[in-house]
Amino acid sequence: MAFHIIGDADTVLGYRFAGVNGDVVETTEEARAAFKAAIANRSKGVLLITEAVEDMLTEEVTAHRLSSKPPYLAVMQDIWGPRGKRRSLQDLIYEAVGIRIVQDD
Amino acid sequence: MSRLNIAPTKSNQLILKRSLQTTSQGFTLLEQKREILVMELMRLLDRVKVVQKELAQRRQKAYATLRKAASHNGYYHMRNIANGINYEHDVRSDTRVVAGIRIPTLSVKQGVFRSQYGFADTDSLVDQTMIDFLALLESAGKLAELESAVWLLARELKKTQRRVNALEHIFIPNYKDTLRYIGEVLEGKELDSFFTMKMVKKRLSEAAEAPEQAEQSDSDAPEATP
């Protein structure tokens, strides 16, 4: 598994065109099962999840990020457009790790 | 003021002095590590920003193309085409070391675009979808690599910060206070013993003089008494 995607049917269809296999999930339970299976095999690939899935599995996703083990995670927008305001990487890190990384723009 | 529960002896003082030295060295090193980590994090976050921007552009384009292609060819037809597509992507991970932390780096070798379906029932939008999503995937791989590195570094930074704080605010003051206390006690003891020695010396010299005086008084006595 080099790339793998977990998301809704339409987003997954898009990535199929780039040869990415994926799990189509609708409910939180399905998403959790797919996510667990995807991180269980620890292969050094890239795991793509949609924002919807990230919102469903906030805790699991954070825990996986903190464990810093492969597969490497990337959150992609759904094909139906952005889901409200996303928290930035800095905010997520501040929440999970407790370190505020300030950048001077 | 807090000090360790250690008997104020010379040997303990020596041990503590050595510990304090090691601790101070460790503190300096850890602080350097912290600075390196912060710098690396900043650098990575800058790169994340660039990649995110690139990703957003490619994503918009790819999603728009997909929607267009789906509306031209029909959703079910698109699904059928998609089922037949197969690319050999290869992700290799390496590690690079920053301040003693192994950070994974990914090298993504993507399959090259090629036509994988019949020309007859598809239009150029399908090809374009494939090209766009391949480009999107490339950015996604980059982002995944950078973000995982950022999380790793952030966690490490937190650990280092906690250690630096523990050394700075607990261990080093503790050692210093204890050393001061031991120093004071030892000084007091030294004064004590110095004083005692003086006393003993005085007594001894008195005792050495006293028999002579006693003899003198003895010899004087018979003359004096009559």
Descriptive account of the structure:
The complex is a heterodimer of chains A (105) and B (226). Chain A starts with a strand and ends in a 9-residue tail after the last helix. Chain A has five helices and four strands. Chain A has a four-stranded parallel beta sheet, sandwiched between helices. With 105 residues, chain A is of the alpha/beta class. Chain B is mostly helical. Chain B has one domain: Helix Hairpins, CATH 1.10.287. Chain B has a two-stranded antiparallel ribbon with strand order 1-2. In chain B, helix 1 (10-73) crosses helix 2 (75-83) and helix 1 packs antiparallel against helix 3 (124-224). The radius of gyration of chain B is 42 Å and the shape is rod-shaped. The two termini of chain B are 74 Å apart. The mean pLDDT of chain B is 83. Classes of the chains: A alpha/beta (105), B mainly alpha (226).
Q: Given the C-alpha coordinates, what overall shape of chain A results?
A: globular
- The CATH homologous superfamily of chain A is named ATPase, V1 complex, subunit F
Strand content of chain B: 5-15%
Task: Supply the CATH class of chain A.
Answer: Alpha Beta
**Number of discrete domains of chain B:** 1
Total strand count of chain B, please?
2
Name the chain pair whose interface involves the most residues. A-B, 33 and 51 residues
Shape of chain B: rod-shaped
Average pLDDT over all residues of chain A? 82
In terms of quaternary structure, what is this?
A: heterodimer
CA(first)-CA(last) distance of chain A? 38 Å
Uncertain ranges of chain B: none
Radius of gyration of chain B: 42 Å
How much helicity do the residues of chain A have?
40-55%
- Count of separate structural domains of chain A: 1
List the helices and strands and how they pair.
The complex is a heterodimer of chains A (105) and B (226).
Chain A: E1 3-7, H1 9-16, E2 21-24, H2 28-40, E3 46-50, H3 51-56, H4 58-67, E4 72-76, H5 89-96
Parallel strand pairs in A: 1-2, 1-3, 3-4
Chain B: H1 10-73, H2 75-83, E1 90-98, E2 101-109, H3 124-224
Antiparallel strand pairs in B: 1-2
